[in-house]
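Please, structure for the following, as tokens.
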Amino acid sequence: MPRSSRRSNRAAKSGALHRRNPVNKSIQTAWKVGLLIVGVFAVGFILVKIIGEFSPWQLSDAISPEQAQKQISGGALILDVRLHDDFVAGHIEGSLWMPLENLESLMKTLPHDRLIITVCNSGVRSIQAMYILKEAGYTQVTSMTGGMQAWVAADFPVITGEPMQVY
């Protein structure tokens, strides 16, 4: 075989290999970057979980039903932010009903000198209510974790009926 045809065959082979190699390198690089991103997020998630469990602000933002019961005995106000039908079906005795949708317009009637414990069904809307009150300048406000579901699960008393005050 003449020399020139060997060179052209080698060039063709090396060119073919060269063309496949960048694709393989791109796939390898994408995998490495993907794994790096997943690793960074995993480490970040673990750190947030660890820090969150020991953070002091978490203790003041939410309390358990057991802690709420003690605070109620000490004069805390329970603010139930659920819908009317949910409130009527069962609520904590002495709680004030103020639906979350109307909280901003009604909160001016709430005392500033008493601890306010926000409550909802599962604990999500009560956290929203707590932050609305804090943004409005209420400093003594917290949320009950787990809401009425957790209260009932703890076997604490629930009463039924209409709210004491209608807005």
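Residues 3-54 form one domain. Confidence is low (pLDDT under 50) at residues 53-59.
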